[in-house]
Amino acid sequence: MSNAQESRIRELERQLELAQEKIAKQDARIAELERRLLQFENPHTPPSLRVKAKKRPPKHGKPGQKPGHEGTTRPFPEPDRIESAELKTCPHCDAKLGKPESADLTVVEEIPEPRKPEVIGFLDLHYHCKKCGEDIVSIHPDKPKSGRLGANAQVAITLMRYNARLPHRRIADILLNEFGFPLAPATAWNTTRSVAGALKPEYEQLIMELRRSPCIYGDETCFRVNGVKWWLWVFTNGIETVFVLRRSRGIKVIREILGRKFRGVLVSDGHYSYASYSTLRQRCWAHLLRELKDLAEKDARAKGLYHEFSALYKRMTEAVGKGPPPEERLKLYEESKKTLDWLLAAKRRGTLQKFIRKMRVASGSLLTFILHPGVEPTNNIAERALRENIVMRKIIGTLRNESGAEVHAINMSMLTTWKQRGENPYRVLKPLLCSG
């Protein structure tokens, strides 16, 4: 073998080693990307996070409302004042003009011009009663309980933070631009912490009221605190909502909020903490059907089972939606249980067998909503309550510390509860911040 051939062989061997190294790196990269993609393409991922193909715009048809659709227009309010520009002389020839021959009214809704903040001094008046010898302090009812900011400013900062989802820096910018009110972002944070301190007794009372509910919907999602993975829990009955941030995803958090002996129905997904806590439970059908649909997309043998479960769910919800009396509910329960047992009795293989085994264990909590009026078959109520927090999580990324976690939980709990009750948060919150 010549020297040229040996040199050529060594060069090819070196190229082969480089190609193998490159392939190994690409395989590792593919594995990492598949691991990341899994969080968006598994049956427990909510529809809002699932990866979807972009839909192309329709080739035909016009955008907007369809023919025959009744539009809605906001009614015009009565004007608070009438403004007009009267002329005394003609702008062309300076001749005197009399009264206008006609007038056209245009109604415009306007907001006030930016105003400077009002600085108020509150005097605490000290008295001494000569008759009983007591020292008395008279405090104005509008004086805030704490801090240098008035109640209106504290409410505005809180609502901008949690309703408008604004970072503290943006809150400071808005107050400066709109009101000429200089405020450091740290002061905005301290204000929300002060408000949470004033609301803490209301928050603790809210937890006690929630425990007396006949039905509670629970859910949880990850939420970072100082860059560390925590869990944001929600417990709601549709009218009262409690959020809590904890490091744990275990049963001890449920016991902390609902107590050790909750007597109502707990509606949740299939997480083991809920199953360990309560036997009177409704397992979420939305999660079940989503998981089964995901199996059907991967395994053709699961398609028939998915359609059977979907049909059973439709029959049950339609019957319960009519508000049947107790005896009809019991009959519906027995019929549905027979169908469910029949579906779970068939022998399956592979991943479908694992799903059937899991459903057999959870079958006792799938039909609870039939026998208990007012109980939903899904925990969508809890998921909707979490939605605002999830949007806020995307904006802020992480809470700074444990104190911030408590402030977020208290303020979001009270604001969400007031919204569910149809109450004006400004009207409810301001009196809680004042001395009167």
Structural overview:
With 436 residues, this protein is an alpha/beta fold. The protein has a domain of 87 residues. 50% of the residues lie in helices and 9% in strands. The chain is built from 14 helices and seven strands. A five-stranded mixed sheet has the order 5-4-3-6-7. Strands 1-2 form a two-stranded antiparallel sheet. It is extended and about 105 Å long.
Question: Any chance you could write out the topology, listing elements then pairs?
Answer:
Blueprint: H1 3-38, E1 125-128, E2 135-138, H2 151-162, H3 168-179, H4 185-211, E3 215-225, E4 228-236, E5 241-246, H5 251-258, E6 265-268, H6 272-277, E7 281-283, H7 285-298, H8 303-321, H9 326-345, H10 350-362, H11 368-371, H12 380-396, H13 402-421, H14 425-433
Parallel strand pairs: 3-6, 6-7
Antiparallel strand pairs: 1-2, 3-4, 4-5
